[in-house]
Design goal:
Blueprint lengths: L1 H15 L16 H25 L2 H21 L8 H5 L1
């Protein structure tokens, strides 16, 4: 019974669908929707692979060494800064 009901619905709806025609068959896309989706996904994967390759190219050992040098320089600069007696926190509280 369900199958007959579906046939009835499809039959009614097919009569109401618009009919299209094309003057130039070259303008009709020949790529299936599924193929286009696969193409889009493959492009995204390709971009992700390029980004991963760029990350692999970074020498993290060298980079961490540079960061450590910068931290040591900042610590040394901080130790050499002297506060004047007028701006010392203890003097400002009085």
């Amino acid at each position: 019974m369900t199958f007959q009901f579906q046939e009835l619905i499809v039959g009614l709806l097919l009569d109401k669908l618009p009919t299209y025609a094309a003057r130039n068959l070259d303008r009709i896309p020949v790529v299936k929707v599924e193929e286009h989706e696969v193409f889009c996904i493959s492009k995204k994967v390709e971009v992700m692979e390029q980004k991963l390759a760029a990350l692999d190219a970074i020498n993290f050992t060298e980079l961490s060494g540079k960061i450590e040098e910068a931290v040591l320089r900042l610590a040394a600069d901080h130790n050499t800064v002297t506060f004047s007696t007028e701006l010392s926190p203890r003097r400002m509280l009085k």
